[in-house]
Design goal:
alpha+beta; globular; about 50% helix; 17 helices; five-stranded antiparallel sheet
Length: about 450
């Protein structure tokens, strides 16, 4: 989706049609659903990308060298008019993904994010060594401090060579003569982007990482390879930009370049398969042995290293209840509880107690969880029960009255999530209306009949 977003920006800046605006919106929304991290990194790049393209297009129509004080205001108006379709496309893309993006941006404060930037996840020891950018080593392990990583950080020998060929027009007037100005500008932009990204992956950029919030964006410097992949892919294609296809077929030079890229990657197409079975139990074991991050909410004071729920998965037994029975039976009196229904986002339990008790669940509290006291016969809601957080783990706990009763613990949408859902479906409706309106205008527009030569029958 990253190339689609870049393509959409180019199209809306140069051909501001409804189809291009909607295409950019869907591409940007799809990227947000795919990876918020990549979306954030690309958005920073888009600021410079859009500015460079828009200023270049305005300069072609209204050269800056002829700029006067009187023409400054019209120039700004022209610049805004050029950038408006692109801005509309990106804003519409955010609205289309609001069902996910809005809660992600506003509820981020409810998640423990400090573990993402400390310990083994601190950025200081994960810079890429210069030789690793060209090392053919290809492993299937994880990144470790120092140069002995078990994962590859190479740029790729063939992409590097082809990218260098793409730079020839920048230094050769003869090669530059066959290029149009917009193509030359794109080569300069993506070459500069590649150079900046490579610089930020190396240890010499540590000072920038220290004073700029780069660690909060990428976490590890080598994750910026996401951007170099795209920029170098463009440069690889630009190496054949002078070729012209014949009769709609792909030209020979393009076929050769594609073959080189494929052949250069053949040694890496075979994956190293693990002997362990892919299962929840093995996932639990891996996370414990590898000290992987554990998802915790803001109410968790001490991040756990293991869970009683994990023991069930390790033993191959199904999880039938998340009620913390140890806490339940530790309370004075005689009380019992059993789970009637258990799902991903709800649990229905029935309890019996001689006096009011607290029922605790082995689940972190997070906004959206609500508890209800239900009628024993009809399951109608009698009242909503307040949820408290127990212990250093912030486990959800509800206090119930004495007697025989039922409690429903359920995860629901918050006002922010409801707003995000409404914005997404409203945006989809707007897109549908615009598409139908554009189609109706297109078919209702009278076609110009081709000119015909009329001759006198006589």
């Amino acid at each position: 989706f990253v190339p689609l977003v870049l393509w959409g920006v180019w199209a809306t800046l140069h051909r501001p049609r409804l189809a291009n605006v909607l295409g950019l919106a869907f591409a940007y929304a799809a990227l947000m659903f795919t990876s918020p991290l990549v979306t954030l990194l690309l958005t920073l790049i888009l600021v410079f990308y859009i500015a460079a393209l828009a200023l270049a297009r305005v300069n072609d129509k209204q050269p800056f060298r002829k700029l006067t004080r009187e023409s400054l205001l019209p120039l700004l108006g022209h610049l805004g008019n050029v950038m408006l379709p692109t801005a509309v496309g990106l804003i519409l893309g955010v609205c289309l993904s609001a069902v996910f993006a809005l809660p992600a941006m506003t509820e981020n404060r409810f998640v423990r994010v400090d573990q993402w930037y400390g310990g083994r996840y601190a950025w200081g020891s994960d810079f890429v060594e210069f030789f690793q950018l060209f090392s053919p080593r290809w492993g299937f392990g994880a990144s470790v401090p120092g140069p002995d990583d078990n994962v590859s950080f190479q740029l790729g020998a063939v992409p590097v060579v082809l990218s260098l060929f793409a730079l020839i027009p920048l230094f050769s007037k003869r090669a530059r003569a066959g290029l149009k100005r917009p193509a030359l500008r794109l080569i300069i932009f993506f070459a500069a982007l590649t150079a900046v990204v490579v610089f930020l992956m190396l240890g010499v950029s540590a000072l920038l990482w220290e004073y700029l919030p780069l660690a909060q964006l990428a976490q590890f410097p080598w994750r910026l390879l996401t951007l170099s992949v795209v920029s170098m892919a463009f440069l690889c294609g630009a190496a054949a930009i002078g070729a012209r296809p014949a009769r709609g077929l792909v030209d020979t030079s393009t076929l050769i370049l594609v073959a080189l890229l494929i052949l250069g990657s053949l040694p890496y197409v075979k994956a190293e398969l693990s002997e362990q079975e892919v299962s929840i139990a093995n996932l639990m074991r891996f996370q414990q042995s590898a000290d992987e991050m554990t998802g915790s909410t803001a109410w968790v004071q001490e991040i756990p290293t293991w869970s009683s729920m994990a023991d069930y998965h390790i033993a191959g037994e199904p999880v039938t209840s998340k009620v913390n029975y140890g806490f339940l039976y530790a309370q004075p009196g005689d009380q019992h509880a059993r789970t009637l229904e258990l799902g991903v986002n709800h649990e229905l339990i029935e309890y019996l107690s001689e006096e009011p008790i607290e029922i605790s669940f082995d689940t972190f509290y997070y906004p959206g969880w609500r508890a209800y006291l239900l009628d024993q016969e009809t399951n109608d809601v009698i009242e909503e029960l307040p949820i408290t957080q127990r212990g250093e783990l912030g486990l959800m706990t509800v206090r119930v009255p004495e007697g025989l009763g039922r409690v429903l613990l359920q995860f629901e949408d918050t006002p922010v999530r409801k707003l995000g859902t409404a914005v997404t479906f409203g945006s989809l409706a707007l897109v549908l209306i615009l598409a139908l309106a554009g189609f109706a205008l297109k078919i209702s527009k009278p076609r110009q009949m081709p000119r015909q030569r009329w001759e006198d029958p006589a």
